[in-house]
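Q: Sequence in, structure out?
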Amino acid sequence: MSAAPLPWWAEALVAGLVMIGAAVAALGSFGLVRLPTFFRRIHAPTLGATLGVWAITAATVLYFSVQGFHLFLHAILITFFVALTAPVTTIFLMRAALFRERQHGNPKVPPPSGLPQAKSSLPS
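A: Exactly. Output:
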């Protein structure tokens, strides 16, 4: 049993959403490789993955909703999972990196919040 073809407008919209999602995810991956420091690198894949998954999920919902003649919302669960886990994972990675940099004595890293900051020797 083969499925009926989609209308042209649905095919074009699904193809556009998939291409946008893939392009955004690829840009995030390139940002991971190209940005110079860990603290800059961490943002690109997180944003790219989240936005890419949103676009591809929208294409999935549209495709299966038009194909099955009813609203298909199961794929949105995947989007919510990625939207919740990607920022939380980023926060944990950033905290671990900050802790490591503080252990190594990097002067560019701010002190932990809640601790008094060292007085600057520069005149005010």
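The CA atoms of residues 11 and 48 lie 24 Å apart.
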